[in-house]
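Sequence in, structure out. Go.
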Amino acid sequence: MANRLKSRPRYELWNWVEQNAEAVHNTNDAYTAKLASEALGFAVTGSHIVAARNAFGIRRREGVHYG
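Output:
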């Protein structure tokens, strides 16, 4: 079963992703999830980042492994 965020945390994450679009583009999803978790104070997964990236049309730069 997927780990889904409730409305408020999802809103906070998507807002964070939008505000940090360049960093989201330039780092891999797992590292971005780590950064978002630290910034927001709740667990964020790579899948959450993918969903948020897709919502804003942010593509991850190819070949990026670390932040």
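Check: Helices lie at 7-19, 21-26, 29-40, 46-56. The chain has one domain: 7-56.
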